[in-house]
Amino acid sequence: MVPMTEMLKPESPASAEPSGGPSRTVTMRDVARAAQVSQSTVSRVLSAPDSSAVAISEDTILRVQEAARLLGYQPNLHARSLRGQRTQLIAMMVADIANPYYHVMVRKVQDVARKNGYDVLIANSDHDPELERHFIQGIMRRPVDGVVLTPYHLSAADISALIERTGVRVVLVGQHLAPLGVDRVFADDETATYDAACWLIHERGHRRIAYISVPGTYPSKRRVAGLMRALDEAGLPMPAEFLETGDFNLESGELAAGRLLTLPQPPTVVMACNDLMALGCITTAQRLGRTVPGDLAVVGFDDIPEAARVSPTVTTIAQYPAEMGDHLASALFDRLINGSMAPGRAIQVPCKLIIRESA
Amino acid sequence: MVPMTEMLKPESPASAEPSGGPSRTVTMRDVARAAQVSQSTVSRVLSAPDSSAVAISEDTILRVQEAARLLGYQPNLHARSLRGQRTQLIAMMVADIANPYYHVMVRKVQDVARKNGYDVLIANSDHDPELERHFIQGIMRRPVDGVVLTPYHLSAADISALIERTGVRVVLVGQHLAPLGVDRVFADDETATYDAACWLIHERGHRRIAYISVPGTYPSKRRVAGLMRALDEAGLPMPAEFLETGDFNLESGELAAGRLLTLPQPPTVVMACNDLMALGCITTAQRLGRTVPGDLAVVGFDDIPEAARVSPTVTTIAQYPAEMGDHLASALFDRLINGSMAPGRAIQVPCKLIIRESA
DNA sequence: ATATCCCTAGAATTCGATTGCGTGCATACG
DNA sequence: CGTATGCACGCAATCGAATTCTAGGGATAT
Q1: Confidence (pLDDT) at A325
Q2: How does DSSP assign A121-174, residue by residue?
Q3: Which of A90, A132, A145, A175 could join A186 in a cystine, given CB atoms 3.0 to 4.6 angstroms apart?
Q4: What is the pLDDT of residue A77?
């Protein structure tokens, strides 16, 4: 007569039938039982088959590995995360997954992460300060090993606080004020915008240059600064009504162009803070019966694939998001895998003016 | 003289300075100590302030909430996931994040997830069977509450096994063989392709129709079937050399078009399995000096934004990924939040032929 | 034959939150 | 006055894996 409690404690080892009911997930204990060893031995074998702190006999190792294989054991990463070290998880926050500019970057990071056995949490902020903070909160609730951020509103203090509280490794997209050991990858957009403006002024003879910016964002600030520098040097004015605003999407570009073209003295060229808004400008110009670039020249930023395929093709300042994604991923995993503690690096990826039909 | 160990055990409650060293993450125990209650009480208060299994006094609730707020307590979701029920996490596998067709879908799911307090794990499979299996493996290692899948190679058995082992709720993209209680959202692409082919034959008088398929994928199979049905009814042949193959990207479309146009008797129209390949066709045709649609008409599939902006604009069969994303998300969260156990639904989203310049 | 050391592996603890069970106290009732 | 009812809350087990501590067994040396 075996007591009831004694009978229930070890779940019958014979229940190896996979199709029998909602087969509970198989844990290390199950593997241990099947291999006739303790759970800790299983852990030691599976986490470092060869070199462990304590030696394990060849026979035991094989028995454990075989049992794990038979039962289809998969370690529970939630448990592993909880216990301490690595979560095998990184998070990436971009402004908008639906913006072509970020696609390749996300892809790259994603691919490198998978190769390193990491999963990727994706979030988009829509350039919304609230959602950016929400993302930080999320990381504090669900710790990750690394973070790739495209901050538009977050301050260096916010990011420092995140690092302080979670110990997460951070890599930034954009020439942002970066705290401590944070690498940042960015395009040299001030210089690129300056160069493009100089080209418009000196090679193409434009004297009335408008700009569509996105107030409150750092990239926009820097690009406007580049333009101003070129205008200053050339002794050209920047009328207030030529400084239009949008919010990175196509429609806002259409609206801004509409306002610019109905001015008593419209500009001869519009530079936009990204290609989507530039495309919007072209659409509006054509709808109003203007020719591009005859009546209005347009210069974009990013060089999304579409820019090369619309009519007229768009002159734009190319960024290299794939290259940026590469730098982001390798910088992050350098710290994650190799444990690099190097001070924050500023990795600058050059831009390039791509001259097409629209200017 | 207080022993060292005694001094170290309780982290001095006075160390509320946030800038004092690597301030350890604050747990429920800390909150409990600050509020002078047990850790379980904190849990009960914070997880269900109003209706809990056991009653809690108003005073205690306030004290706990205040303490949590002061200490900036954030629950650890890894721990919560481990303990049991919800992980507050869903995973989404698409074929390619960089394909415009999926963007809106991802966005929608992402947005709905955030509104429900869920994070989203993203993975792309690149139509690679290996990576699809890798994704399933990943879910078994890191359990999630729900999954949105775009399976191209996974079998119903694979998906069943996943559900069996993890209890995850699943929603599929595509008219896939779906097991058990799995909803699937798909476009009616067989009918749409059939209709488009009929239109090409009867309204436009085409008799030499080529198709660029992607072998081994379900959507491609169905679309080819739709075309064949239309050809059969019209008594038209389908020469083997007109059945070209690609792999969903632009370059493969260019290559396929190159082969078709150098045939002794080239087709008068090419239908492609997606817009990217259709764009490739147009590029090649123009490079070979053919006019579109004069010498070669082209019909795509998806209606990505670019299709409306290239020259010539592309006639294509529109899918509505935003609508599909909505259905996906609401179907999934209906099961997650409301615990719906309804049998698998087949949610069909119609397609629509968009007639533009290329055909 | 007994002490010593090493090799191996089991037991116990930890991570942070959840939860079934139980207990102390107060009020109510017979 | 003694026991029943119930409210508010604490104890301790649990989730799955990693790690540290400890004990047993075998081999070798004295």
Answers
A1: 92
A2: EEEE-TT-HHHHHHHHHHHHHS--SEEEE--SS--HHHHHHHHHHH--EEEEES
A3: A175
A4: 93
The partner residue sitting opposite B164, judged by closest CB among A23, A123, A279, is: A23
- SS3 of A209, please? strand
Residues in chain B: 359
> Would you state the pLDDT for residue A94?
92
CA of A35 to C1' of D25 (A): 20
B56 strand D contact, CB < 7 Å:
yes
Residue at B304: amino acid letter = I
Instruction: For A299-317, write each residue's pLDDT tens digit.
Output: 999 998 888 878 899 999 9
**Would residue B308 be called left, alpha or beta, if left means φ above 0 and alpha means ψ between -120 and 50 degrees?**
alpha
Closest residue on chain B to A89 (Cα): B121
Residue A148's nearest CA partner among A176, A101, A114, A109 is A109
Strand B315-318: give its sheet, edge to edge. Answer: B243-245, B209-213, B269-272, B297-302, B315-318, B352-354
Cβ(A138)–Cβ(A114) below 8 Å: no
CA A351, CA B172: separation in Å to the nearest integer? 40
* d(C-alpha A76, C-alpha B142), whole Å: 6
Beta strand A146-149 pairing with A346-349: unpaired
**Distance between CA atoms of B141 and B168, rounded to whole angstroms?**
12
Q: Going by DSSP bridges, is the β-strand pair B269-272/B209-213 parallel, antiparallel, or unpaired? A: parallel
- Indicate the SS3 state at residue A15: coil
Of residues B23, B114, B166, nearest to A165 (C-beta): B23
pLDDT at residue number B227: 97
- Confidence band for A37, pLDDT divided at 50, 70 and 90: confident
CA-based nearest residue to A211, from A288, A299, A151: A299
